[in-house]
Design brief:
Helix 3 crosses helix 6. This protein folds into 2 domains: 30 residues; 113 residues, Glutaredoxin (3-Layer(aba) Sandwich), CATH 3.40.30. Strands 2-1-3-4 form a 4-stranded mixed β-sheet. The protein is of the alpha+beta class. The protein has 6 helices and 4 strands. It is 47% helix and 15% strand. The chain is globular and about 35 Å long.
Length: 162
């Protein structure tokens, strides 16, 4: 049995310092391979509010029905398109963004869950991600989802709906 009190104080201090430094290094290294998928886009959570903004700014509404914390294709769409500057630049000039989320682990109010379910039923959403483009009057321009090719290709795809 190791009795720490028999160690001289400097050896014990060095042991504790080495232990904590090792923990900090391991913790830091664990984040080196992680990619951030935060998109920093101005997503609204209310479609009525988004339509009002679209009318004022003469923009199209992009509604993103997503399972943000569990849907693989939703995460890929976010990582490959929504988090890229090409999409952000296009969105800023042309779109009002709405995210209707159906997470499994993220908390939502019952009101938000109900609102999101009503919208999904109204637009007949059957899978995720479902992207719906709406004119400023609320009429549907088209439906789409995840597409390979990155942000520039996705912007071209969205422009084809006009």
């Amino acid at each position: 049995m190791l009795i720490l009190s028999s160690y001289p104080e400097t050896i014990l201090e060095n042991y504790v310092k080495t232990f904590f430094i090792s923990i900090v290094i391991l913790f830091s290294l664990s984040f080196l391979g992680c990619k951030s998928t935060a998109d920093n886009l101005p997503w609204k959570e209310n479609l009525d509010e988004a339509l009002k903004t679209a009318q004022l700014e003469n923009k199209t509404v992009l509604v993103n029905f997503t399972g943000s914390d569990w849907c693989v294709w939703c995460k890929r769409l976010n990582e490959e398109v929504f988090s890229k500057p090409e999409f952000a630049e296009y969105a800023e000039k042309n779109l009002v963004l709405v995210k209707i989320d159906f997470p499994r682990d993220k908390e939502q109010t019952q009101e938000t869950k109900y609102y999101n379910q009503q919208l999904a039923a109204q637009y007949r959403v059957e899978g995720y991600p479902t992207i719906i483009l709406l004119r400023k009057d609320g009429s549907v321009l088209g439906y789409t989802g995840y597409l390979e090719g990155g942000a520039a290709s996705y912007v071209q795809h969205l422009q084809s709906f006009k």
